[in-house]
Amino acid sequence: MKKMTMKDVDLKGKRVFCRVDFNVPMSEGKVTDDTRIRAAIPTIEYLVDNGAKVILASHLGRPKGTVNEDMRLAAAGAKLSELLHKEVKSLDESIGQKVEQEIASMNDGDIVLLENVRFHPGEEKNDEQLAKAFAALADVFVNDAFGAAHRAHASTAGIAKHLTAVSGLLLEKELDVLGKALSEPERPFTAIIGGAKVKDKIGVIDHLLDKVDNLLIGGGLSYTFTKAQGHEIGTSLLEEDKIELAQSFIKKAEEKGVKLYLPLDVVVAQKFSNDGETKVVNIDEIPADWMGLDIGPKTVELYSDVILNSKLIIWNGPMGVFEMSSFENGTKSVAQAMAKTEAYTVIGGGDSAAAVEQFNVADQMDHISTGGGASLEFMEGKELPGVTALTDK
Ligand SMILES: Nc1ncnc2c1ncn2[C@@H]1O[C@H](COP(=O)(O)OP(=O)(O)OP(=O)(O)O)[C@@H](O)[C@H]1O
Ligand SMILES: O=C(O)[C@H](O)COP(=O)(O)O
């Protein structure tokens, strides 16, 4: 079902409750990565240019329903103001009389940022009263928080029952890119899945096996597959209870004609540290008291080759412990191959987005999702409550 967008509503003079995802990394009261704030700007500018009174709302961190001084949104408001060259008034509440008074005094085109919606316990419970209190502040609801679209919360889903609810430009773009990739992919279509645990990627691997031509596996989760192939993995990450599942994925790939690639060689170390001795071994030669912490050079060559010969690539999860320089090469090389390929490249948020930033190739990717969990759930084929709740066209 098609959902209404900002372009379907008259915004002039309207109070617009615009949910954004300003859940940004912070250190010492400052925003350390403003990617998500920058990503919301087209929608905010559209609202301003169309004469709306812009009431921004977001969560930050997981304050568990109480006020947490370190999780106030004022620093994000200041950053937004700096980026827009325009006043953004940060309030210290998200509902109540004071907020209502502030909104009543707004002129068309003004912007306020409400306080962290998760300071209220009702937010994450999708409490009806809180949803109504948010809705009472506005005439229209715009959801632009793709990163939080997998959460059925009062400010993402509940509020949509009480107002005309439309998508913002970022939400629309994310759904468009990821949706098109999954429904009408250019081929060869390759998915690269890494990260720590099989358990977190079961849904996405299963769903992608129905869609892709190639599946490249790396990172901590690959060792459960290696074990499933019958090799010893030393002290590498293992999820004993997922070995059978890994076997079933290998079988499913065979049945579907998907080329499933697993590491041929790995970088091993005796401890989880950047300083110890490391060596490269073939996948069937991991010594008993060593652990695999990155893919090796033969694997890098093979994976890069697949990447260079694809037309569409989705990447979620690093190939190794890329935060440590001794084990960054696999993730770095994959990032560099992604930068070089002519394929349409999509980064599924979270650590992979951090990796392409770290290796200075972010601007060479076609789309970097602002959602970690949200893009993963979308790629699992799940419905996103923040999208489902929007008004049908
Ligand atoms: N071989 C390995 N052994 C141990 N840890 C690993 C290994 N390879 C990668 N990791 C770690 O996995 C972590 C990332 O995995 P995780 O599943 O948490 O995130 P992700 O897959 O990037 O998900 P998201 O994109 O949602 O953040 C990184 O911190 C990385 O150091
Ligand atoms: O950072 C994210 O993935 C989103 O902002 C959602 O945050 P959450 O996992 O705390 O709901």
Q: Per the principal axes of the C-alpha atoms, what is the gross shape?
A: elongated
Query: Which ligands, by name, code or SMILES, are bound?
Result: adenosine-5'-triphosphate, 3-phosphoglyceric acid
- Amount of helix: 25-40%
Largest sheet strand order: 5-6-4-1-7-8
Q: What is the SS-derived class?
A: alpha/beta
Largest sheet: 6 strands, parallel
The parts where pLDDT drops under 50 for at least 5 residues are: none
Number of distinct helices: 14
Report how far apart the termini are.
Answer: 8 Å
Number of strands: 17
| Beta-strand fraction estimate | 15-25%
Which value, in Å, is the CA radius of gyration? 23 Å
Mean pLDDT across residues: 97
Describe this structure as you would to a colleague.
This protein is an alpha/beta fold and 393 residues long. 35% of the residues lie in helices and 17% in strands. It contains 14 helices and 17 strands. It has helices at 35-49, 74-84, 97-104, 121-124, 128-135, 169-183, 198-208, 222-228, 243-256, 297-308, 329-340, 350-358, 373-379, 385-388, and strands at residues 15-19, 26-27, 30-31, 53-57, 89-90, 111-113, 140-143, 164-167, 189-193, 214-217, 259-261, 265-269, 278-282, 291-295, 312-316, 344-347, 367-368. The strands form 4 sheets. It has a 6-stranded parallel beta sheet. The protein has a 6-stranded parallel beta sheet with strand order 11-10-9-15-16-17, sandwiched between helices. A hairpin with an 8-residue loop joins β12 (265-269) and β13. α8 (222-228) crosses α9 and α10 (297-308) packs parallel to α11. The longest helix has 15 residues, at 35-49. It is elongated and about 70 Å long. The protein starts with 14 loop residues before the first strand and ends in a 5-residue tail after the last helix. The model has no long low-confidence stretch (mean pLDDT 97). The chain binds adenosine-5'-triphosphate and 3-phosphoglyceric acid. Belongs to the phosphoglycerate kinase family. This is Phosphoglycerate kinase. ATP binds at residues 201, 292, 323, 349-352. Pathway: Carbohydrate degradation; glycolysis; pyruvate from D-glyceraldehyde 3-phosphate: step 2/5. Substrate binds at residues 21-23, 36, 59-62, 118, 151.
